[in-house]
Every structure is written in structure tokens, then in C-alpha cells.
């Protein structure tokens, strides 16, 4: 028997919510533990399915992994298996991040092509060409990406696009290469900075984290470390949008507000009053909204642009805003597919290529809808909060891959949401 969410719209969200560690950071940090023999400890791990899946993937490579609340202890042996083709690997996108560390340490890797969300084509050409510039040969064979190298040597790499995954893999291979590697047009996301920070704590020499040019001076070995995962800026953004859409008052804790600078600016443009809290235990922000939001345009771009992962929330907000908004999606061509589900809820929306035009209406109308990926699913729940009647959201396992305690947090903020057996 499967479960779905039943969302009764109409409640104003009010209260406080804690944000956990970032999904798109923790999985890469777990992969980075492969680079050092011994026990690496990662804290503030979110309680989401992808973490135990990644733990299984690391175990299949010979690591011992202990998950204890929000702490992951990964003990990496001297001799690692280079075959990462277990079932767990195919189930999550981030599994591809073991490729760089395995090539770095074993000089050979066989990694199952990753799974993950159905948001459009997700090629690996930049991962491959980056590793090839470092001296590896790579090819696809029997559903796996294979990489082999005699040795890895520093080089200059220009990425066609600031891909997070390609930056991470090249970085994690380059830290153990001989000489200096420069990655130009590198991704600048906070999760990349988090990874660079942990690698440097392990003894790597990475300069330029958070800029488009990463310079990596290779070292011969890394040592294990302890590292705390940064707060999840996408989860934080979800609560910010929820506050504006329900004309609520939500205090979000546990995330660096500067990782959401553009998001918070857009929420201000929609009419919200936003306060940021920097550093320490209070770190986070508060969003207070009175009255109907005003329509705002959004364009997705790599960080510090507006994240593609937040695009479904921008669509959801636009459906109930006053005026017409244009949303432009520049990263994943299938990410507008979920708009058909929004239309079931009465949204006045049209798409043309990578543009969506949404005319806001006063109130959505409840309907059964199906989540197709984590963020689209969360966006549908946000829309359900603004619909009259009970919106049934199916395929919620997608949502739960990114949001620990989603229903519990929503209920704490006053939403009328329940988990129901289908
Ligand atoms: N791309 C290529 N070739 C490559 C690699 C990427 O053409 O070799 C293209 C992609 O097709 C896409 C763009 O480059 O158009 C950016 O892709 P990127 O590599 O940055 O994405 P990713 O590393 O596969 C991560 C997140 C996604 C998030 C994107 C963009 C993880 C596990 N996933 O994916 O998160 O949407 O970056 O920010 O870190 C999510 O959390 O819901 C999610 C899908």
C-alpha cells in the first residue's frame, strides 16, 4: 500500500522551522571520504533516503559506514574496490560523485550510470572530458562509465557550463593528481564551497572556492576529518515561498541567508518583509507576508543565479500572484512538465520552449496531482496550500527524498496536511 499527502488549503503558515543539512552537499561529502584512509565523520546529515543509499554504495566499495542520527562515520580502507555498480548506485544521481575519488585513489573506476530525477537529459560529457584532460581514458560499457589512468597529472580545464557534478568529480580527482589543475568556469554553488572546505581540512590544496576558477595543487594523500554539512538552501527557499504564498509569517533557522540572497530579494519584490539573521544559532531568515503577492519574473541560472531547483516554487507562487509572470528555465528542459499538474489545480499557465507564462488567479482549486521529482512535488504541495478543498498529492516518495519531516514541519506551521494510505 502506498501513501499520499492530503493538503487542505487555506491555512496561513506561522511559526518556526529548522532546516537540515543540504542533500546536494552531504552526498558529495560522503563520496569525498573515499579519498582518505581512516574514519571521516560528517555531521548535520539530513534524514533522507539518499543518505542510506549512498552509505550502501560506499559499503559496496569496501567502506564501513555507520549512520547514527545526523552523524555519518565512514571508515575507508587502504584498498578500495573500484567497481561501483551495485543496485544503490543506479538509484541516485549523486552516486556519480564516486567516480572522481575512485579514479584519484584506484586509477580505475567502473561506476553505474546514475538514476535520480526525471527532469531532462543529464549527460556526463563534461565529467568525462575533464577526467580525460587529467590523463584518464573513459568510456561507457554495459550501463557503466569506466575510467582508467596510469596516473593523473595537473592540467587546465575549461568547462562548457558550470556543472556542479562535473566540477565535483574533476575536483575530487585533481586533489590527488601530480601538479596543479585549474578548473575554469567551475560551479560556484555553496555546496561546492562546502566540498572544497572539507577537502582542504583533509589536507588538499584547493584555492578559489566560490569563484569560477578553482586551482588545485595536487597532494600525495589526504587524511580523514570531521565536517558539518551546510544547511539546505533549497529547503530554506521552499519555506520562504510557502510563507509568501499563504500570506504567513515563518522564521527559518539553520541556513546561511546569503545562500538565498536572490531568492529573498524576489520574495521582497513579491511584497514580503524579509529579515535575515547572520551566523550563530539564530542563522536564517524570517518572511512575513500581508496581502496577495505581486507577480515577479524568474530566470534559472547556475549560482548565484536563481536555482533551477527553486523553479517549481516560483511557478507555484506565480499561479496565485496578482499579475502575469514569466519564468525561464535554462538548465533542465523537462522541468516544466509538472506545470500540467498545476493546470489540474486551475493554474492559468502556458509554456513555450524554456519559457512559462503564468497569469495569477485568486485561488486554486483542489485536485489529485502527481509528483514527478522532489522539487515539483514540493511545489505541488505549496500550491495545494492555496487551493480550496483537499488536494491529494501522489508519488510522495519523490518529495521525501529531499525533505525530512515535510508533513510534520508543515503541520507545526499550522498547515492542514496529512499522510493518507492510498
Ligand atoms: N551538463 C552537461 N554535461 C555534463 C554535466 C552537466 O551538459 O557533463 C548540463 C546538464 O544537462 C544541465 C547543466 O549542465 O543542463 C547543469 O547540470 P549539473 O551538472 O550542474 O547538475 P547535477 O550536478 O547533475 C545538481 C543537483 C541538482 C540541481 C543541479 C543544478 C545533485 C545531486 N543534484 O545536479 O539537484 O538541479 O545540480 O543546480 O547535486 C535536486 O536536488 O532536486 C536536483 C535535481
UniProtKB/TrEMBL annotation:
Q: Which residues form the active site?
A: 117 (proton donor)
Q: Does the keyword Cytoplasm apply?
A: yes
* Keywords carried by this UniProt record: Cell cycle, Cell division, Cell shape, Cell wall biogenesis/degradation, Cytoplasm, Peptidoglycan synthesis, Transferase
Its source organism is Lentzea waywayandensis
Q: Which GO terms describe its molecular function?
A: UDP-N-acetylglucosamine 1-carboxyvinyltransferase activity
What positions does the entry give for UDP-N-acetyl-alpha-D-glucosamine binding? 93, 309, 331
| Stretches that traverse the bilayer | none
Q: Where in the cell is it found?
A: Cytoplasm
User: Briefly, what is this protein's role?
Assistant: Cell wall formation. Adds enolpyruvyl to UDP-N-acetylglucosamine.
Chain ranges of the Enolpyruvate transferase domain: 8-410
Tell me what this protein is called. Answer: UDP-N-acetylglucosamine 1-carboxyvinyltransferase
Q: Which reaction does it catalyse?
A: phosphoenolpyruvate + UDP-N-acetyl-alpha-D-glucosamine = UDP-N-acetyl-3-O-(1-carboxyvinyl)-alpha-D-glucosamine + phosphate
Name the protein family: Belongs to the EPSP synthase family. MurA subfamily.
The residues that hold phosphoenolpyruvate are 23-24
Annotated metabolic or biological route of this protein? Cell wall biogenesis; peptidoglycan biosynthesis
Q: Which SUPFAM superfamilies match?
A: EPT/RTPC-like
Instruction: Give a GO cellular-component term.
Output: cytoplasm
Give the GO terms filed under biological process for this record: cell division; cell wall organization; peptidoglycan biosynthetic process; regulation of cell shape; UDP-N-acetylgalactosamine biosynthetic process
Pfam families in UniProt? EPSP_synthase
The EC number(s) given in the record are 2.5.1.7
Q: Which InterPro entries match?
A: Enolpyruvate_Tfrase_dom (IPR001986), Enolpyruvate_Tfrase_sf (IPR036968), MurA_subfamily (IPR050068), RNA3'P_cycl/enolpyr_Trfase_a/b (IPR013792), UDP_GlcNAc_COvinyl_MurA (IPR005750)
Amino acid at each position: 500500500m502506498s501513501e499520499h499527502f492530503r493538503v487542505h488549503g487555506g491555512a496561513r503558515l506561522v511559526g518556526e522551522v529548522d532546516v537540515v543539512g543540504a542533500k546536494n552537499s552531504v552526498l558529495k561529502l560522503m563520496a569525498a571520504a573515499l579519498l582518505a584512509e581512516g574514519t571521516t565523520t560528517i555531521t548535520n546529515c539530513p534524514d533522507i533516503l539518499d543518505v542510506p543509499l549512498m552509505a550502501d554504495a560506499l559499503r559496496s566499495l569496501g567502506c564501513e559506514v555507520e549512520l547514527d542520527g545526523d552523524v555519518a562515520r565512514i571508515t575507508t580502507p587502504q584498498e578500495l574496490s573500484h567497481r561501483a555498480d551495485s543496485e544503490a548506485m543506479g538509484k541516485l544521481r549523486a552516486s556519480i560523485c564516486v567516480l572522481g575519488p575512485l579514479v584519484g585513489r584506484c586509477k580505475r573506476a567502473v561506476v553505474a550510470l546514475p538514476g535520480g530525477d526525471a527532469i531532462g537529459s543529464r549527460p556526463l560529457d563534461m565529467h568525462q572530458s575533464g577526467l580525460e584532460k587529467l590523463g584518464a581514458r573513459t568510456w561507457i560499457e554495459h550501463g557503466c562509465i569506466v575510467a582508467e589512468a596510469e596516473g593523473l597529472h595537473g592540467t587546465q580545464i575549461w568547462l562548457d557550463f558550470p556543472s556542479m557534478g562535473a566540477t565535483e568529480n574533476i575536483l575530487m580527482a585533481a586533489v590527488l593528481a601530480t601538479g596543479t589543475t585549474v578548473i575554469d568556469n567551475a560551479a560556484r554553488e555553496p555546496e561546492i564551497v562546502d566540498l572544497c572546505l572539507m577537502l582542504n581540512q583533509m589536507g588538499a590544496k584547493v584555492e578559489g572556492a566560490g569563484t569560477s576558477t578553482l586551482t588545485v595543487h595536487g597532494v600525495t594523500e589526504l587524511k580523514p576529518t570531521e565536517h558539518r554539512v551546510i544547511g539546505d538552501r533549497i529547503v530554506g527557499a521552499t519555506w520562504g515561498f510557502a510563507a509568501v504564498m499563504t500570506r504567513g509569517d515563518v522564521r527559518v533557522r539553520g541556513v546561511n541567508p546569503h545562500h538565498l540572497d536572490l531568492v529573498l530579494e524576489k520574495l521582497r519584490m513579491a511584497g514580503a518583509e524579509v529579515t535575515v539573521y547572520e551566523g550563530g544559532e539564530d542563522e536564517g531568515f524570517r518572511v512575513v507576508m500581508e496581502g496577495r503577492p505581486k507577480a515577479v519574473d524568474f530566470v534559472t541560472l547556475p549560482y548565484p543565479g536563481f536555482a533551477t531547483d527553486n523553479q517549481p516554487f516560483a511557478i507555484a507562487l506565480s499561479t496565485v500572484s496578482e499579475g502575469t509572470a514569466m519564468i525561464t528555465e535554462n538548465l533542465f528542459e523537462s522541468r516544466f512538465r509538472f506545470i500540467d499538474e498545476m493546470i489540474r489545480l486551475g493554474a492559468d499557465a502556458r509554456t513555450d520552449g524554456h519559457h512559462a507564462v503564468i497569469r495569477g488567479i485568486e485561488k486554486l482549486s483542489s485536485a489529485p496531482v502527481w509528483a514527478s521529482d522532489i522539487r515539483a512535488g514540493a511545489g505541488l504541495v505549496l500550491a495545494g496550500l492555496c487551493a480550496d478543498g483537499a488536494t491529494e498529492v501522489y508519488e510522495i516518495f519523490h518529495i521525501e527524498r529531499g525533505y525530512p519531516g515535510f508533513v510534520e514541519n508543515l503541520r507545526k506551521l499550522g498547515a492542514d496536511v496529512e499522510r493518507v494510505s492510498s
